[in-house]
Amino acid sequence: MASLADIGMSAALNILSALIFLIVFAVLRLQPYNDRVYFPKWYLKGIRSSPTHSGNFIKKFVNLDCRTYLRFLNWMPAALRMPEPELIDHAGLDSAVYIRIYLLGLKIFAPIAVLAFGVLVPVNWTGGTLENSKDLTFSDIDKLSISNIQPGSERFWVHLAMAYVFTLWTYCVLYTEYKKIASMRLHFLASANRRPDQFTVLVRNVPPDPDESVSEHVGHFFSVNHHDHYLTHQVVYNANNLAKLVEKRKGLENWFIYYENKYNRNTNIRPTTKTGLFGLLGKSVDAIDYYKAAIEQLLKEEASERERIISDPNAIMPAAFVSFKTRWGAAVCAQTQQSSNPTLWLTDWAPEPRDVYWPNLAIPFVELTIRRLIMAVAIFFLTFFFMIPIAFVQSLANIEGFEKVFPLLRSLIETNLIKSFIQGFLPGIALKVFLILLPTILMTMSKIEGHTSLSTLDRRSASKYYLFLLVNVFLGSVITGTAFQQLNSFIHESANTIPVTVGMSIPMKATFFITYIMVDGWSGIAAEILRLKPLIIFHLKNTFLVKTEQDREQAMDPGSLEFASSEPRIQLYFLLGFVYYVITPIFLPFLLIFFGLSYVVFRHQIINVYTQEYESAAAFWPDVIRRVIIAMIISQLLLMGLMSTKHGSLTVPILVLPLLTIWFHIYCKSRFEPAFIKFPLQDAMVKDTLERATEPHLNLRAYLQDAYVHPDFHSEDVEHPMIIEEENNTLVPTIRTSRRSTPGESKYNSEVGSECEY
Amino acid sequence: MASLADIGMSAALNILSALIFLIVFAVLRLQPYNDRVYFPKWYLKGIRSSPTHSGNFIKKFVNLDCRTYLRFLNWMPAALRMPEPELIDHAGLDSAVYIRIYLLGLKIFAPIAVLAFGVLVPVNWTGGTLENSKDLTFSDIDKLSISNIQPGSERFWVHLAMAYVFTLWTYCVLYTEYKKIASMRLHFLASANRRPDQFTVLVRNVPPDPDESVSEHVGHFFSVNHHDHYLTHQVVYNANNLAKLVEKRKGLENWFIYYENKYNRNTNIRPTTKTGLFGLLGKSVDAIDYYKAAIEQLLKEEASERERIISDPNAIMPAAFVSFKTRWGAAVCAQTQQSSNPTLWLTDWAPEPRDVYWPNLAIPFVELTIRRLIMAVAIFFLTFFFMIPIAFVQSLANIEGFEKVFPLLRSLIETNLIKSFIQGFLPGIALKVFLILLPTILMTMSKIEGHTSLSTLDRRSASKYYLFLLVNVFLGSVITGTAFQQLNSFIHESANTIPVTVGMSIPMKATFFITYIMVDGWSGIAAEILRLKPLIIFHLKNTFLVKTEQDREQAMDPGSLEFASSEPRIQLYFLLGFVYYVITPIFLPFLLIFFGLSYVVFRHQIINVYTQEYESAAAFWPDVIRRVIIAMIISQLLLMGLMSTKHGSLTVPILVLPLLTIWFHIYCKSRFEPAFIKFPLQDAMVKDTLERATEPHLNLRAYLQDAYVHPDFHSEDVEHPMIIEEENNTLVPTIRTSRRSTPGESKYNSEVGSECEY
């Protein structure tokens, strides 16, 4: 076990690396040519314009003002300065609540750390067991931990009392925070501007009707059963083919503009391109004419595909977005059961238009349950047996496998350097590649489960990832061995020895997790703010690929909060905090630094960098609380296991804690969770009444008509033939809500738009 | 282990006792003086009148027509003859669905029994293990069971296949039955006459308002938030004191009528009574005058208590029954969240008026969660540690304890007979008394949990009782030892050895459970139809206590289906059936006889005897299915445990079964359960539209006004002062819905009613 000096050494190293990251960040972010990497959000908001347009040539790229370098940490107070209401306004409630998870960590663990250092550390330090028993190797860290107290000592009552105090304090913080977030959400929803999703319900599993089309059937059903409230509806088209065509056309349009610009700069030479692979092979043609013709061809294909979709009844999915005259009507429809067959006419709040995950809208009910069953089994196997395919790949990646596959390379492989590389590095790579791909795999699994909004997909992926981290990182580190071996030994162990086994090895792993928190937490967060990957990619793109202003906009990838992968990692730190707050209090300061640093960094990032893809109004918060509660219960069970080996009579009082925690969870859930699922009628009525008073002549039908059209049906500012075909529930174009609606694009669209009318 | 001959002997004995019960029943039910015991339902319906009023004296009491005795089983076809729709009409959907539980047993196990005897019995019989191994004692029963097959034999694949076939068949039956019951429920609700609960929602946790009374607050809230639909409401009064006074008055009224009748028969002597204890001590007074004065006094007290309740704001509970103009409006309100605080304005379907459990209406939300926490802990201790207090009582009930408490009785106790009685009998009595009291204890616990309707109370009690039976009867019999010892050994055993331990002892317990099913099932059901307890009590009351016709009505206790205690017992048989259908197929015929006999007996009982206290429209069915599913999963785990000792490679294919069962349950639940919880808007709209067309001038307000008044506020046909005080939500009297509203009572009420107006 590591001594205090070792830990200090490690801490110094990690602080140093974190500091280097921060200093590099401070320098890089001041350079104008990095401006789009570190402040993309302001560009997207249209507030900041490119600094390369003004000033002398050097100043465009390098910041020569030395004074700015002296205040290299001044982004920190700046990040903290923006008040929360403004932050919500600027970055959305999702982001604002996301960083409150770090704040939650600070609120829980800061007072606990003070108390633990005031009470538990002296009690442990003077325990004196380790000094007396000379046969044990021990370190200073252990002298501060519970290991320093003799089994059976009455001092454990202090730990018991502290466990209760800490738990109650955590309840307090969780309760007030849950309450706060719930009221923030309700306030956000109440003060939100008029949005289509407030009036709209997503209806799935519309039953087939022999006499009517889906659209007619939906219209009739809701005008009968919600006759005072139903306004209009939009059917959902299966537009996956169309999406491909649009994607292809956009690529060609970039090339078109690139060559046009090139020609404009030098009008003497008509630029040429080759028709073959990537413009490298084939015969040379005039580039501008070639791309113009290709785009026109694609536009025609798009138009005919659109017509096919509209005329083909099979392209209409049995789902629809139904809009109501009032928020009250929508709230009623979303919360009630429509038909006596509960698998038909499933109604639910419509997600925001940009939050909709279109491909999943048409999955029938039975298929949905089967998909979920299969995915539940798959996630179990993925969590516990993921090492098997990796070991298989690793075995392929050994020398003999390589030589078999590439016999020609044998002489090369036999070189010592390459041999050691393959043997020492490749197996690790297989695991690393898997871990990098893991969030994508989990997201794919969530998509297969059939959720209809991006926010739900994120939340479901986060749950899966948490399970994986819990089993493979936490348990895997505590009990060395693969998850499969653990599972095997757990099955063969008695139910009450599992917490004992795990609990006993917990104190010994404290130094490992302290190191983990410094490497993964501190340096990881400092690296996050540096945005090394986007920085490199932006400059690569900027140098080689950017042809148009629009391309530069797209090269500037602001990213977004990766809820699905980063939230479970925070939860791991919560778990570690709960596990160690009684056992090894020295753990807590490291945790607090992590939470504090993360809070500042992510606050800076959501202000300056990240752009949300959707706004779910903090719908993920109940998941966060649930996972914190799971972490508490696990820590309490482990504490019980450990205590049963130290002072048997304490087992029962500790057993009360998980029961209390479960009850607390049930209470909080019933108290606050409805605020995240349902929309109360009272609030809907207030907002409706207010709107009726302020805007009595609002044409809601026009407002809602085109809100839920498949994004690729928006043919940018052009009226479509389909308007004539369907009288009221038409699919007229609207202003794009996604961030790709850049000035360059829309300019171009208005140019070529008229072509697609025929 | 018992041989086939032993089982046959036991079967013969039990068949004999069952036959005796049936013959005694056949004889007794034909006697006119028992008519009110065996056909009370027809009396309550007013279809049958007392046979003692007509014919000669002997014939009034004894049936002398010998031919009727010959057809002593003819009640069986009679019970089966009534078609189901008529049965639902006659006895209600609850009862009709309840007996379908037995039908479900027949449907599941009859084809399985045929298949098991066709396939499994030959396979087992020719297994030949037991014959070859001479050191084992075995019986013919065992030769038919899985024990007769050599471990590792490939014959187990037949059992595996059969387990799959049986399971799939069970899914089939459960699915179709669930579907059938769901549609029966929806049809019942759709075709039901207008009932107050269709328009009414129970609102709980009305927040206090400084400026308004509860009634005003409720009125304003709903007229704002459901302004097109809200009709009227009734607040809930805390009328527990009043209920006591009314109870007392009713007793006095019986005496009053008794003495009046006595005086009418013999007008010479004014009857007298004594004012002291039970009319036995104290000075003699004129009985009629005395009781008349006492009743008048009580009526005055009642009136003042009513006034106190109405004028005292503390007597108004923060709950109300809110009625709507349409079923659609009520359905919307019941299914939606009203306020942004989900613990306020809790809305739920109002139970039927007679189904309301009034004392629980005012429990605040926080208290409710605490109560449920405490009860969850209590039910755990009751299930696993109930033997501790009983052992304590038993230890008190020994000779020494007795001699200490009653030193005077020492010489008597020392008598051998009494000594052996105390030692041999009293400890058993303590357990028996506990088991008799158990349903009451569980019901009390459910009441503490705070459910607001009698039907929910029954369902919750049934769940608790099922847990108790599962742990203490099933597991307790399989693994001898108390539940506490089992729990202890389970905790100390590894998780996967529990099914093995239990599974291995399953085949050995087959004969025990066959005997159990014959004693508890066959004879128990035959005893049920005899109604020995109500028979004796009726005749005792009739002889000693019946003074008036009203008393005779009350002495005639028709009883009702005791869902809370009898449904869990059926579930125990389902569990045994699933556990043994692969292991010991010989078990199945005994089970089938139980289900068949029960079905006929209970069909007879619900037609002729039982009267429902409420109608929940089969709301309990999801619970029934859930428990059947639990039984299936338990049986599959035990089969897996057993197979792992017989043929290890079969463990994995059997492991698939419980997973499949869980998935099947989730699917069925989402498919059908909403039909038992929610009321679809489409159906509500259809019924509303129909009603509007057929009865355009219906005064719904008048119809609903007095539906949800506390039963003791109905002052029988008398208008109360409170009508003047509260304008619209008044508490006007209505016709009593409970079965106690007999002609005698109402006659008397109209006589004295006018007195309570001042």
β-strand percent of chain A reads under 5%
Our Rg estimate of chain A from Cα atoms comes to 30 Å
Any idea how many domains of chain A? Answer: 3
In total, how many beta strands of chain A? 6
Low-confidence stretches of chain A: 716-758
How many individual helices of chain A?
36
Structural class of chain A: mainly alpha
Tell me, briefly, the overall form of chain A. Answer: globular
Oligomerization state of this entry? homodimer
Q: Percent of residues of chain A in helical segments?
A: 55-70%
Ends distance of chain A: 76 Å
Arrangement of strands in the largest sheet of chain A: 2-5-1-6
Q: On the 0-100 scale, what is the average pLDDT of chain A?
A: 78
Biggest beta sheet attributes of chain A: 4 strands, antiparallel
State the largest interface: A-B, 47 and 47 residues
